[in-house]
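S1.2 Input.
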Amino acid sequence: MSIDDKLSTVKYTSDIYSHLNPDNDKCLNCQSKCCTIVCPANVYSWDDDKKKLTVNYENCLECGACRIACEKKCIKWEYPRGTKGVTFRQG
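S1.3 Output.
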């Protein structure tokens, strides 16, 4: 089974509030922007024009890779509130 096939079994109930909150001032000084690379769900992207990290938290798999890999330790990462977030299905 491919990673795309596995990801298609994931259900996500989106919240109106992001559970991923990077400190964009610290992101400006980050050379690697590794969060844009390590996230398996492509949650993060760097906007060169706006000099800002874009966060598509609705895609988050809650793996925590971004929090661990961030060289500036600037991502405030929490689990989504209540019944929001990812639900993995056996398959």
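S1.4 Remarks. The chain has a mean pLDDT of 90.
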